[in-house]
From TrEMBL:
Pfam families: Glyco_hydro_36N, Melibiase. The keyword Cell inner membrane does not apply. This is alpha-galactosidase. Its EC number is 3.2.1.22. Residues 60-243 form the Glycosyl hydrolase family 36 N-terminal domain. Keywords: Glycosidase, Hydrolase. InterPro entries: Aldolase_TIM, Alpga-gal_N_sf, Alpha-glycosidase_related, GH, Glyco_hydro_27/36_CS, Glyco_hydro_36, Glyco_hydro_36_N. GO terms for molecular function: alpha-galactosidase activity. Gene3D superfamilies: Aldolase class I, alpha-galactosidase from lactobacil brevis.
Length: 701
């Protein structure tokens, strides 16, 4: 019988058959692996008017030109020749949970290695390496990281789109007969085309994502028998990847998982590399951007830090404006020396003040960019990515530094290292505020792929030199959130938009692939700086509280009443963050009539956050039916705490008052079957419910 290779994570199983010639055939991809059977040895007849010998279409990384007429996952040529690839002589190399499949095309003189890993979290990952075994250059035009199989029949794809300030907007569509393609050429993950999908049919649901921060593509191609191949990989610029003799291309890693909890577990347990090997409780963070912008005054900043410590804030992050002559966003990027006008004695007095208050100190960098109005650009205009003869395209009055040049990377490392080495810095907010255009090096050739890897290398170098420093990935908000960036960072700035109403949808979408403790969510001022909306402090706080909580305002501008209220929410976050951020505890529900519900649950405590976004259309809200993830704990429960103390309800009955006051105990199973009959909230308001189990007793009410 043919050799069958099984990759089984416990949640997903990929079963492959290795042919004598051609790509590995996907026998099944789902919850259960296959066993060797004579059925798999039966050759299929070819398609009508097809080749005399049938060519399997459900294969990993199909190549074209030898009877496969679908979308090829690998293409390239050697000066116009060797444009067809057909690998054979497959070998299997196993090492623990990792399997490497290797083969050679002796005609095109290419080698391939496909690395498949079954992760303890339940994910399966795949990556591809293609090698030039010939004695002349080979131009690689396409090399996907992975292929996964979706079943025949009606299949729905959930993708993510958006813009700046409205990232992670979910969209669902039914796949047709054609090829579905999503591509990003922005040089970063982007706000509008995240490399993340969920595939859902009547018989199966699974998600896929590409761990890469540069140009990428995702393709869903329909095969002859109605099934679908889902391809993920890097998108090359023309002529970008040319392999010299003996050189290899290594793709990013693509991942597939059965559900959000498995993706969250992978990020927590395998992807994120924490200082000292373990995540500390996520500190409440004050970021100075919206409270100060470029107006840095030492006395005010010290006073803000003092006020922040009194509120219970644990990390103070100095945002943009501390370096060069940075009085606005048109100048000084690249000049990473402390501004002596604003800080005549350097940063140390502020850092010492912050750390003396018991808080961590963080600082903002945007290493990849340069302003044309800067000392760096004046000295080294050739360090920017440009194409000779083409207009120099600025975005946000910025150009992109060519990090593939060692002297550029060394300069940036030296500047960042000097700040970190001479100050007690625990945290970097690493920003990246423009897309890549005319991304060519001095030789005129495209550099987008190499630039992405050079950014990774600089991050890795910084982390290796400063093991206790955490990094936040920010790219105009959520423009670079992916598993390639998360491998090197510890937090993401989910969106530049801090409007709580907008954040309902942004955070719901981002939570599909990223656990809540990684997603930065801040309480900002009212009216909101991005939208002008006014929201209560309770609404702003409750929308943020389950994630990595922060504050994005000047605490000196709060009234005494606001300060006291904010303290309550910060104290509540600290009390509940171990539950909010516990493995497998978080949950979220689909919005219903503008009502968003999420939270976290254990056998000892359940926290439910209910937020009403737009105006509800129904006469009254449907009872809140808690998901099985919560009701599985069973027993009798009651509502122990409600925040705010007086939620903004449109109408409330006496029975509902009794329920919210804790006077009614109920079976958790009933909360799943019939639901909690909560009152209707006013638009753009929220409440937090803490439920506690009752030991014994009867159900009342």
């Amino acid at each position: 019988m043919s050799e069958i290779v099984i990759i089984d994570s416990g949640q997903l199983a990929l079963s492959l058959r290795l042919p004598a010639l051609g790509m590995p055939e996907i026998l099944s991809f789902g919850a259960e692996p296959v066993e060797a059977d004579s059925l798999f040895e039966i050759e299929r007849s070819s398609r009508v008017n097809g080749m005399d010998i049938a060519v399997p279409s459900n294969v990993l990384l199909p190549t074209g030109g030898m009877g496969f007429f679908g979308w090829p996952a690998i293409t390239g040529h050697r000066g116009g020749r060797d444009f067809v690839a057909q690998f054979g002589g497959w070998t299997v190399h196993r090492d623990g949970n990792q399997t490497v499949l290797k083969a050679v095309d002796s005609v095109a003189r290419l080698g391939i290695a496909i690395t498949l890993t079954a992760h303890v979290s339940g994910l399966i990952s795949m990556a591809t390496e293609l090698s030039n075994l010939g004695d002349t250059d080979y131009q690689l035009d396409r090399c996907m990281a992975a292929t996964f199989l979706a079943p025949a029949g009606d299949v729905q794809v959930m993708s993510f789109t958006g813009i700046w300030g409205r990232e992670f907007q979910t969209r669902r569509e039914l796949l047709g007969n054609g090829t579905w393609i999503q591509e990003s050429r922005r040089g970063r993950t982007s706000h509008d085309r995240f490399p993340m999908l969920f595939i859902e049919s009547e018989t199966q649901i699974f998600g896929v994502t590409l761990g890469f921060s540069g140009n990428h593509q995702m393709v869903i191609d329909r095969t002859d028998d109605g099934q679908r191949l889902v391809h993920l990989g890097e998108l090359f610029e023309p002529g970008e990847i040319v392999l010299k003799p003996g050189e290899s291309y290594r793709s990013p890693i693509a991942y597939a998982g059965a559900d959000s909890q498995d993706f969250h577990a992978f990020v927590r347990d395998e992807l994120t590399q924490w200082p000292a090997g373990k995540m500390s409780p996520r500190p409440v963070t004050l970021n100075t951007w919206e409270g100060n912008y470029f107006d840095h005054q030492m006395d005010s900043l010290k006073a803000q830090a003092t006020a922040a410590a009194e509120l219970g804030i644990e990390r103070f992050v100095l945002d943009d404006g501390w370096f060069g002559k940075r009085d606005n966003d048109t100048t000084s990027l690249g000049d990473w020396d402390i501004d002596a006008r604003k800080y005549p004695d350097g940063l140390k007095p502020l850092v010492d003040h912050v750390t003396g208050l018991g808080m961590q100190f963080g600082i903002w960098f945007e290493p990849e960019m340069v302003n044309p109005v800067s000392e760096l650009y004046k000295a080294h205009p050739d360090w920017a990515l440009t194409i000779e003869g083409r207009p120099i395209l600025e975005s946000r009055t910025q150009l992109v530094l060519d990090l593939t040049r060692p002297e550029v990377s060394d300069y940036l490392f030296g500047k960042i290292d000097a700040v970190l080495s001479n100050h007690a810095v625990s945290y970097i907010k690493w920003d990246m505020n423009r897309d890549l255009t005319h991304a060519a090096g001095r030789d005129g050739k495209a550099k987008t792929s190499a630039q992405t890897r050079a950014v990774y290398a600089l991050m890795d170098r910084i982390r290796a030199a400063h093991l206790n420093v955490e990094i936040e990935s920010c790219a105009s908000g959520g423009g670079r959130i992916d598993y390639g960036a998360l491998k090197r960072t510890h937090r993401v700035w989910t969106s530049d938009c801090t409007d709580a109403l907008e954040r309902l949808e942004i955070q719901r979408g981002a939570s599909v692939f990223v656990p809540p403790e990684i997603l930065g969510s801040h309480i900002s001022a009212s009216p909101n700086h991005q939208t002008g909306r006014r929201h209560t402090l309770a609404f702003r706080a409750l929308v943020a509280i389950a994630y990595h909580l922060g504050v994005e305002l000047n605490p000196l501008e709060l009234t005494d009443e606001e300060r006291d209220e904010l303290k309550v929410y910060i104290e509540t976050y600290k009390r509940l963050r171990d539950l909010f951020h516990a493995p497998g505890a978080s949950f979220r529900m689909e919005p219903l009539d503008g009502r968003y519900v999420w939270g976290a649950a254990s056998a000892e405590k359940i926290v439910v956050i209910v937020a009403q976004g737009p105006q509800m259309v129904g006469e009254q809200p449907a009872p809140l039916r808690l998901p099985e993830q919560i009701t599985q704990f069973g027993g009798q429960w009651r509502i122990k705490t409600v925040l705010p103390a007086e939620p903004k309800f449109i109408r409330i009955s006496e029975g509902q008052k009794a329920l919210l006051s804790g006077a009614v105990t109920f079976a958790l199973s009933s909360a799943g079957l019939s639901g909690l009959p909560l009152p209707m909230l006013t638009p753009e308001s929220a409440l937090l419910l803490e439920l506690e189990p009752i030991k014994g007793g009867k159900t009342h009410g």
